[in-house]
Write a structure and sequence with these properties.
Elements lengths: L1 E6 L4 H12 L3 E6 L4 H11 L3 E4 L8 H6 L2 E5 L5 E2 L3 H7 L4 E8 L9 E8 L5 H26 L15 E2 L5 H4 L8 H9 L7 E5 L2 E6 L2 E3 L9 E5 L2 E5 L4 E4 L1 E4 L11 E2 H6 L41 E6 L2 E6 L5 E2 L1 H15 L5 E8 L5 E2 L1 H6 L3 H20 L5 E7 L2 E2 H8 L3 E5 L3 E3 L13 H9 L1 H10 L3 E2 H7 L4 E3 L6 H14 L3 H18 L2 H16 L5 H10 L23
Parallel strand pairs: 1-2, 1-3, 3-4, 5-8, 18-20, 19-21, 20-22, 22-24, 23-25, 24-27
Antiparallel strand pairs: 4-6, 6-7, 9-10, 10-15, 11-14, 12-13, 13-14, 15-16, 17-18, 25-26
Helix pairs in contact: 1-5, 9-11, 11-12, 11-18, 13-14
Length: 588
């Protein structure tokens, strides 16, 4: 069928629906509702769709559109649930089960007849992680079922309310409900509030007289202090005392009214480093993004945490027999210069351990999205920080490519994009959860790309397909990635089971007969490739293209980066159209 997606943003769920519907042979177009109702009407006139789908929509579909065309809306709540903050309420109330409903657009919000619904179990995770995991899995299943039912023509959608679907209206979940009372709220309450707003909108709070939004929360089992007191920093996060414990907060976002020139999310310690020190504290030394304020102590933990610890760290190493696991989880999948350098140090540590298989990733949610645009945008010299960041991630990728004494596996439990996906491709095998969405391109940020993609991508999919993937700049489903050779093995499990399944697969790989021969063949192939063209040449040529962009103030990259970080609209209302592409020519 000819399908039109009407979305407020072409986010992870919208991309997944687009990719999976395209895999089934449907012709799918996309229009951004954020460009206004006239843009939606224009797209409808041009595409003349048989069915309109809204997988992620913050505004209403124009009445004349839904009256003249069947429009199916994805609601992140079970049948009968209504309101704009369904998922927020699910996290806040500690729901154990929730659901996704595909319903037909009508005059009353979320009140149309139901075309499909899919339940799911709610894990102990942040709202954004939940959205990209269980919600996305349920939404994908429900959308595909609804489209099939519509195409068959015999299904009659179920009216709301029905005898088994009582209506529950949930108001918008505003900041007064999210606010933390540090003196009264226990740790579990604080964690629920933080996790319910980890990506958007954050929890509005005050630190040393400055209003900030808190993003993300993780428990701490040892540090203690007065409720609300800042206790320490660790790897860019800050620890804050609760009434009966403490929590780690990875990111802060200054409120616009604070006058901060960078009112967007970034590592919490770097935001605090820009604040005046509290009374009686030593004045902080000059810092760069990612540094901590000198008036807070640094608390460190080993890469191999004891099993009884309940604390936060963004990089961990574990070992089971002959398999090592280097897991990492960075907010939003973005990897700053500091993230890359610490991960490289951890990778080098992992190489000292006696294993035959080393797994990178293996956690639910993002694998990596490449360089950290927010940290770059906040830097005093964004061009210089871009250069430091791309070199730091290149160092990491090169270390993986030059590992010849064991097999390296990238385990993608969630989405990966740009340089983050190229990091994954540096491994010998790529395992990918079936719900992941991959974006093997840089073009929409106005970049050529680095991370040795000109070596690894053609090596996997061939030069022709590599040129198409980087030139078209379209999202790729896990199934398509496996079909074209971008990934080696699909892992068809729910997000909550991915880590355990990866461990089982790694153990089987480590015990497989002929593993030593594979490692020897790998080392020989690397030597042969190096003689044909050294890795240093790939890196030199890619970085020359990147440097020319970074240090050209007129390059589209700078405006695109700033708009992306500040969530400002750019380009065409049709995000997949050539008119909306910031670059012309070139393979990426």
């Amino acid at each position: 069928m000819d399908l039109l997606l009407v979305v407020s943003a072409f986010n992870s769920l919208s991309q997944r629906v687009y990719a999976e519907l395209s895999d089934l042979g449907h012709r799918v177009d996309v229009v951004l509702a954020s460009h206004g109702p006239d843009a939606v009407r224009a797209a409808v006139r041009e595409v003349r769709p048989e069915l309109i789908l809204a997988p992620m929509l913050r505004s209403a579909i124009p009445e004349d559109v839904w009256r003249e065309h069947t429009c199916l809306v994805v609601h992140p709540g079970p049948p009968g649930d209504r309101g704009p903050s369904s998922l927020d309420w699910a996290v806040a109330e500690g729901a154990r089960e929730w659901g996704v409903t595909v319903l037909q657009a009508e005059a009353v919000m979320d009140a149309g007849p139901v075309w499909a619904a899919e339940p799911f179990r709610v894990p102990e995770a942040g709202k954004s992680d939940l959205y990209r995991g269980e919600v996305a899995d349920a939404a994908s299943a429900a959308v595909l079922l609804a489209v099939r039912r519509y195409g068959e023509g015999s299904y009659k959608p179920v009216p709301q309310p029905g005898p088994d679907t009582p209506v529950v209206w949930r108001d918008a979940f505003r900041q007064d409900r999210r606010r933390i009372d540090w003196a009264a709220d226990g740790t579990q309450t604080v964690l629920r509030k933080l996790r319910g707003a980890d990506s958007q909108p954050g929890v509005l709070d005050e630190i040393h007289g400055r209003q900030v939004f808190l993003h993300g929360g993780h428990p701490e089992d040892r540090l203690r202090g007065r409720p609300g007191e800042l206790l320490a920093t660790r790897s860019g996060a800050v620890c804050r005392a609760t009434r009966d414990g403490a929590v780690w907060i990875p990111e802060l976002r200054p409120r616009k009214a604070s006058g901060d020139p960078a009112p967007f999310r970034r590592p919490a310690a770097s935001v605090l480093a820009s604040f005046p020190p509290p009374p009686g504290a030593a004045r902080p030394v000059e810092t760069r993004p990612g540094d901590r304020p000198s008036w807070l102590p640094e608390d460190t933990v080993p890469l191999e945490l004891p099993g009884d610890r309940r604390t936060w760290s963004d990089i961990r190493y574990t070992q089971r027999g002959d398999a090592g696991f280097l897991s990492f989880s960075f907010p939003g999948g973005a990897m700053s210069t500091d993230h890359c350098r610490r991960l490289l140090a951890a990778y080098r540590f992992a190489l000292t351990r006696p294993t035959s298989v080393l797994v990178l990733g293996g956690t639910r949610d993002f694998f990596s999205n490449g360089i950290h645009l927010n940290v770059i945008e906040a830097a005093a010299d964004p061009a210089g920080e871009s250069w430091l960041n791309i070199n730091a991630i290149d160092d990491l990728v090169e270390a993986v490519l030059r590992t010849t004494d064991r097999l390296v596996v990238s385990a993608l439990g969630g989405n990966a994009a740009a340089g983050g996906l190229m990091l994954a491709l540096a491994a010998d095998e790529v395992w990918c959860r079936t719900g992941a969405v991959l974006n093997p391109h840089y073009r929409r940020m106005g970049l050529y790309g680095s991370e040795f993609w000109t070596y690894t991508l053609p090596r996997r999919v061939g030069a022709r397909t590599a040129g198409r993937l980087t030139g078209e700049a379209l999202p790729v489903s896990a199934a398509t990635a496996a079909r074209i050779g971008l990934v080696d093995r699909l892992v068809p499990v729910p997000a909550r089971e991915f880590t355990a399944e990866t461990a089982r697969m790694a153990a089987a790989l480590a015990a497989a007969p002929g593993l030593g021969a594979r490692v020897a063949a790998k080392a020989a192939a690397r030597l042969s490739d190096e003689e044909a063209r050294p890795l240093a040449e790939y890196r030199r040529d890619e970085l020359a293209r990147m440097r020319a962009v970074f240090f050209d103030p007129r390059a589209p990259y700078h405006a695109l980066r700033s708009a992306f970080v500040r969530k400002q609209p750019t380009g065409s209302a049709r995000p997949l159209s050539p008119a909306g592409d910031p670059t012309t020519g070139g393979p990426a």
